[in-house]
Amino acid sequence: MNATFNVETVLAIGFAIAVIIVVLKSARIVPQRSNYVIERLGKYNRTLDSGFHFLIPFIDKVAYQHTLKEEVIDVERQACVTRDNIQVGINGVLYIQVVDAHKASYGINNYRYAASQLAQTTMRSVIGQTDLDKTFEERAKINEIVVQALDEAASPWGIKVLRYEISDIELPLSIKDALEQQMRAERERRAAIAKSEGERQAMINVSEGQKQEVINLSEAEKQKQINEAEGRAREIELIAVATAEGLGKIAIAIQQPGGQDAVSLRVAEQYVKEFGNLAKESTTLILPAQLADIGSAVAGLTEIIKKKS
After folding, report:
1. 74: Cβ–Cβ under 8 A, 6 or more apart, which residues?
2. Short-list 30, 93, 71, CA closest to 160
3. Which residues contact 87 (CB under 8 A, 6 or more apart)?
4. Alpha carbon distance 165, 92 (integer Å)
5. Consecutive 10-residue runs of the chain (309 residues): their mean pLDDT?
6. Going by C-beta distance under 8 Å and a sequence separation of 6 or more, which residues neighbour residue 286?
7. What is the DSSP letter of 262?
8. In what order do the strands lie in the sheet containing 43-48?
9. Are 35 and 68 in contact (CB under 8 A)?
10. Which phi and psi (to 5°) does residue 65 adopt?
């Protein structure tokens, strides 16, 4: 009885272990963004996407496991010779992604190593067609050319080349010194040009200021002359008006009683005054031929005033 029980127990345990092994062999859980390549009896059968899957124990097996995430591959430093025969060392970073797990498994043995080696050879080819100065100025263009060449070559491998970036360019010490001297000379040249341009602009500003000053002075002189001319014209006008008004008042006063006598007296006074002034200013004494004619002269002037009035 006990022997029979022991045998049954062993068989039960053995069966349970076999079931567990079969379950482990047949059940597969594929993580998110991953693909498993299944082979049946050594031949490709199917590709499993993320999720839970059953396999035929001892017949199906997971031959390859691929992640569909973007992968970063460090491309080792390589020596490249530029078109102007300068040797430089270049490091790069390559970004790839598996898009077809079947091709990535059977299209090439190691797609990561192959992509890295292809990136190196392509970079050497591109740098060989580029001058040293252009390698710094046209990094984006060089990266684009490398990506395009790699993507075309890697298409049968089931991978997509997303980006390639040059991480570092190492130059020989002699070239570094030459470039530093060149950049120093370029900075000095720019400084000299900037200084000369500043001096030139300063001279232009000074000449423009002098020109404007001369224009302003001439305009001021012109305005001064205009103002003086207008002042003289106004003065003459006012004198003429005042003279006309005075003469009008004199004419009216002459018509008044006693006006003629006043005119005669005023004329006689002016005659005598002017004659006296003439005598003071000249060393020669001028006397009328007949002193008695003074009265007749005054009478004549008075007669003229009467006629005019």
Report:
1. 91, 93, 94
2. 71
3. 79, 80, 81, 172
4. 6
5. 64 76 78 92 90 85 91 88 86 92 90 90 88 81 88 90 88 76 83 87 86 86 85 83 74 67 65 62 54 55 55
6. 278, 279
7. H
8. 43-48, 34-40, 60-67
9. yes
10. -125, 125
